[in-house]
Design brief:
It is built from six helices and five strands; from the N terminus they run ααααββαββαβ. It folds into two domains: 79 residues, no CATH class; 93 residues, Alpha-Beta Plaits, CATH 3.30.70.1350. β3 and β4 form a beta hairpin. α1 crosses α2 and α5 runs antiparallel to α6. This is Alkaline shock response membrane anchor protein AmaP. Keywords: Membrane, Transmembrane, Transmembrane helix.
């Protein structure tokens, strides 16, 4: 997700949240016959609303708002659901003979295989994604609940050093997620 898309999402969720809180608070005050709910209801002029609904320009404006809402909604949906993945990167140390392109996802899987050799690891999942304009390799490590964390962290740190040694000059980040499996009942 890019910084711009994240900002748009946060602003939209913030505005909709404030609107929902305001409408819910007004409805609650009105339902409880609180004087503040009645006072807020007094600001709503039904004659003004009927005047807007009866105006000749209302259908055209409503149609434009609906079309703009559909376009913006579809754009937000596509932008948030689009896969922000990458597979190959060009090494910064390419020479005159050409550019060296590496399959980062295969290197990430090799790192996962190296980590999986640890005795208490039950599984490793890797993913390559763009996160806020950065190339990020995420490795999720699933381990048994009896794992010795120090030895697991040492294995992950060694795999990370090997990964970065294999791709010198590539501008990417690595992220390791540790998930301990649930303790078996009994």
């Amino acid at each position: 997700m890019s910084h711009r898309l994240s900002l748009i999402d946060r602003l939209l969720v913030g505005l909709l949240g404030l609107l929902g809180l305001g409408a819910g608070g007004w409805a609650l005050l009105w339902a409880l016959d609180h004087p503040m709910g009645d006072r807020l209801s007094g600001y709503l002029s039904l004659d003004a609303v009927e005047g807007v609904l009866a105006s000749p320009w209302y259908p055209a404006v409503l149609l434009l708002v609906v079309i703009a809402g559909l376009v913006c909604g579809l754009w937000l949906l596509v932008a948030n659901l689009r896969a922000h993945t990458f597979n190959r990167l060009t090494a910064g140390e390419s020479g005159e003979a050409g550019q060296l392109t590496l399959s980062v996802s295969q290197l990430a899987r090799a790192t996962g295989t190296q980590i999986r050799r640890h005795a208490d690891i039950t599984g490793v999942d890797t993913a390559t994604r763009m996160d806020r304009g950065r190339h990020v390799v995420t490795t999720a490590v699933h381990a048994s609940p009896e794992v010795r964390l120090r030895s697991l962290l040492d294995a992950i740190e060694e795999a990370d050093r090997d990964f970065h040694a294999a791709v010198p000059g590539l501008d990417l980040d690595t992220r390791y997620l540790l998930q301990l499996n649930p303790v078996a009942p009994g």
